[in-house]
Amino acid sequence: MPQDAASRLATSGAALTIERVAHRYGNAVALEQISLDVAGGELVSLLGPSGCGKTTLLRIIGGFIEQSAGRVLIQNEPVDHLPANKRTVGIVFQNYALFPHMTVARNIAYGHEARRTPTAEVKARVAEMLALVRLDHLADRLPGALSGGQQQRVALARALAVRPSILLLDEPFAALDKNLRLDMQIEVKRIQRLSGTTTILVTHDQEEALSLSDRIAVLNQGRLEQLAPPTEVYDRPASLFVNTFVGTANVIPGTFVSASGGIGIVDLGGIHITTRAPIAPITPGEAVVVCIRPEHLRIATTGTGLQGTVEMGLPLGATIVHEIRTTTGLSIKTAEPRATGTEPRLPGTAVTLIPTQPEAVGVFRPAA
Predict the structure, then answer these.
(1) CA 53 to chain centre
(2) Is it true that 3-240 and 248-364 share their CATH fold?
(3) How far apart are CA 104 and CA 143, in angstroms?
(4) What is the mean pLDDT of the chain?
(5) Distance of CA 325 to the CA centre of its chain
(6) CATH code of domain 248-364
(7) Residue 293 CB coordination number (10 Å)
(8) Domain segments of the chain as ranges
(9) pTM metric for this prediction
(10) Does residue 12 or residue 347 have the better pLDDT?
(11) Contact 266, 255 (CB under 8 A)
(12) Which CATH superfamily groups domain 3-240?
């Protein structure tokens, strides 16, 4: 590769393009024609269940796996012919992979020392990275004397020290306990914003993706289901899979009636409710499923809606979750803010469930 092209790859905040990337393991399809455009400085999460292809895609970007088809470009330069160590890509693994016999400072310096960078430049860069991750006071510690969160920050500093064009994070919070995880998510977001490095995060944790990402790529069985900002993925899921995988949703069978002006009508056992219009055209009379998140259902004692009785109520701090058994035998969950002193409704209480607004109700064809 010409030297000017190599320099462009090393630009912080480089654009990443995935063009129709596909991959097979023998007869098994791991990725099916994935295309993504990631802007410079953007943080995009690859979200999906185990086996959906997200780690395979991450490793293809990093050069650890050669894809079966398609191209990977950094700053519009194809990098498929380059090995991992020539792609100017940094990676933080799930287990951090720190050198146990090296101090924090030596771990951070390792990439530059391997490239025979002048000592003065390495020292300055290590000091810069230590300040960025707020570990100046631990420069001489060994990894074994650090907490999990501190080890994660060292791994992040080591990856960023060589000024990667793309930063890859492979389930970086999986080894942390729940209390530390949120703190570290905030810290990683801060560091990523300050460094301006284009970042790809692999996770199966919906809350993690929703809180950290500029956009989320939801993968399912090797296919890209949706690529959108977190609020859009949550509020306007593009498929039944996205609606049920990201967050919690009640799935209710019904019959499609009509759609007009962005609003749909669905018959739920004799009760007509309004929904947002389906994304794919659906024929009137066709069997469908309606997806309603628990927080988008209002509990009333009168009115037109799904009829049922309370089976259980759980006070969860600032929220009350009720499980309702409808007259048709469905189990529906609701969630509503809990005012101070408010108790759950008693089991056996008759209630009516009414969607808060049509835009909060999705309608899809049933899963095959």
Answers:
(1) 14
(2) no
(3) 7
(4) 90
(5) 32
(6) 2.40.50.140
(7) 22
(8) 3-240, 248-364
(9) 0.87
(10) 347
(11) yes
(12) P-loop containing nucleotide triphosphate hydrolases (3.40.50.300)
